[in-house]
Amino acid sequence: MCGNNRIRILSSLVAFLAIAPLPAQNHSGEVPKLVVAITVDQLRGDYLEMFRHNFGSKGFNRLLNNGLIYSNIRYNYPNPDRASAITTLFTGAYPSYHGITSEKRYQIETGQEVSSFADDRYLGNYTTEKLSPRSIRVSTIADELKIASGGQSDVYAFAPYASQALASGGHAATGAYWIEDYTGKWASTTFYKNKQPAVDQQNRSAGSLSLTIGSLTWRPAREIESYNAFPYTKNRYRFQHYFGNEKKESFHLFKQSPFVNSEVNDMAIKVLESSQLGKRMNPDFLAVTFYAGNYEKALDKNYSVEIQDTYYRLDQEIGRLLDAIEASVGLKHTLVYLVSTGYFNEQEIIPEGMVPAGGDFHPDRSQALLNMYLMALYGREQWIKKYYDRHIYFDRKLIEDRKIDFADLQEKAAAFLVQSAGIQQVVTAHQMTQAGQNMETLFLRNGYYPGISGDLMLELQPGWRVVEPGSELQVRERSNAVIAPVIFFGSDIKPQKINRTIDATEIAPTVSYRLRIRAPNAASGKILEELY
Q: Under CATH, which number does the domain 360-466 receive?
């Protein structure tokens, strides 16, 4: 064989190896004794890299150096939030199947805004809220683990908010707990029949958050000179946030601070150790939800310091949790995975004198104009019941009584509304139920659930800001998602970096595969090939 041919063959082989997929990790096939799901609400991958120089060796760096890392996760539906995103992670399905479209929903029958987990059939423990996971219409990872183990596996979930705990605990949790909005107690629902002694002891102790909130003040954990990750921040200021004793206001602010991660972690570690998780024949499951978003009163000159302090403290909490797992079960016997909810509630501070692209979208004005248009077509009635979270709900009974073609009314309303400034497209409920959709419509369809979603769904143009009366949160629309890595660590996981965006629906079937159980019954994603 001549030299030129050998060079061509060698070059082709090198090119093939460069583009060929990496082989799956070879693992022993041993089922982990414990799975620890760490969900970080609003974790940003760019911040993780920017702030990494301040992290220690036991938290994020331990995961980043020794874990299997996917560069990004995508939630393929509009406007994910803490409720819909976490439910997607644990069911492997989108809201169009699991039914949790957002943190709250508009209840058509009563005309009220309620929790997506509202359920009058069950009472609260340490809360007056009546909630349950029954709104999740499909099974979760934890449900399938309970079924596979004949009910012998323990499943616990701890989170700042009820929606997070219920979504990650699922229908069969041994216990799912959250921090109550008014009292700071660890709350749950009578849907779950078991009581966890460690939780009750904490609620009755002198160290309960309900008794200590007034003495807590958030100050920087480090010298602020070390919080230097933002290149455009000229001045850095020390901050001091006192949560006070104003009941709901105090705990509302507390849940937006890094202190909430310490509270969640304390409870999770106590139950990990006292309940002997991971020390029985069947594997156990522990779901922990942390927070990495902004502090609503920090949208000023202190934002850059406060968000860096939040990540610094979160790094310490993750290190503390990993140490507790190592001491109690052993990391080699535990599958740990960390994932973000894939969104970030960021309010831009526009410099004085700058006129940004886009504008302000006023839903109340658009609703009034649309109703006037429908009056001209169908008569002087109030055709619209509610605008809620980019959805418009019509008075269906009125439309039915007048014998109006509902699909035709939706189409005419959408055609009128899409001409409004700031609206990119309007999709009707009728379109959502039809086959043969394009990719853009499919994206919206993934977030649509009949009977919960509205009759019209609005997509705003990037740069436009929703301005609703009485609401302080005014976020500008962005079409580019937050970059958020996914990390698998522990049980037979070899360090590897995968530069690929994975789908949120791939997490549940992959974790189920490692547990050697069925995937949740509506899981639509494939098993991640590197974890076979």
A: 3.30.1360.150
